[in-house]
Amino acid sequence: MLSVCQILEDIQAGRKTAAEAISQSRALIDARDGDIGAFLELADADATPGDGPLAGIAVGVKDIFDTYDMATRYGSPVFDGHRPPVDAAIVAMLRAAGASVIGKTVTTEFAFMHPAGTVNPRNRAHTPGGSSSGSAAAVAAGMVPAAIGSQTGGSVIRPAAYCGVTGYKPSFRLFPTVGMKTFSWSMDTVGLFAAKVVDAGRVASLLSGRDLEADPLREAPRIGLYRTSIWDQASPAMQNAIDSVAQSAADAGAHIVEIEEPDALSRGRDIHTIVQNFEAAMALGDEHRRHAAKLSDVLREALDDGYSTRPQSYDNGRRIARQARKAATALFNDIDVLLTPSAPDAAPVGLTSTGSSIFNRLWTLTGNPCVNVAGRVDPAGMPLGIQIVGRFGRDKLALQAARWLEETL
């Protein structure tokens, strides 16, 4: 895989130019994407590399974000040929930092559950996950060093886990969602993909202007082993991976504490779908009314569910969500991060499902920063993702702990 940090170091040392780095990514896309299907459209090949701290970094952008120079379809035939006049805020930030938006990556329909055509670079018989399937696959296949995705349920962490790359879902609203097609305004979150944790931290730092570098920790972190109340939904391979990682972390000096899931967080996970579908029914109301025939069955069913939800049920869901956020904050009084599965198992075989977000949706609801750490595999050699969850607003510590764990593994 391509490394953001290595590319920037090579450019600074004069070993390559920004233009050469971008050309390398374009050549790799041309050579590999025919088999993977991560990209929908590429930017003009004659575009001049940007000027800024991310100059030379080719970035794939999920086709849920507006781009002025490429079509934005939101994964739906409803928007075939749609050309926004301006960039989404995160795309504008990329360009301002000097990154080259090299192309639009495949998303599922409106970033929901209907599978798209991208395959998993680790094994093409398996799903790459969703909804940020193209972004995760583009990084995993070594075509680009970084990509932008989004998460409303598990759409950054899960595909990162399935494809064996770093996925970083920041604290809610750390990055703007302006110009991103809304599905659930209280949970939609911009996320990043990169080869390693240090690469994701570098991109996040240079984009946001905040110190989000995954610097080495001075001492081993305090880790809460969070099996959750749905532990039985993790496969034996995933359960073994979590236990193995916890033991490796303990052997390396980490203080491991078993954390029992509070009832408030279990309730939060349970109401995620109520809140999501109610908001989606409003956000996609016109698409549903005027273009229902162009929507997938799974999306129509979710929107119908949202329409049938009484406002009082939604308001109660929001109250439960607030209680869950408070309970989530309290978990970190004596620990630095939580350790939990990124997904129930490795990527399922076939392209008829994008997998389950059951181990992600709670943290999207609460807004906590999450990082997928690669490094474990199942008996068939497919990646098993380990999820690090941090305290809200403590993204740097979450990234640092994830890097420490990545290097420990």
UniProtKB/TrEMBL annotation:
Domain Amidase: 48-397
Record-linked Pfam families: Amidase
Domain of life where this protein originates: Bacteria
GO molecular function: catalytic activity
Family classification: Belongs to the amidase family.
The protein's name: Amidase
Organism from which the protein derives: Oricola cellulosilytica
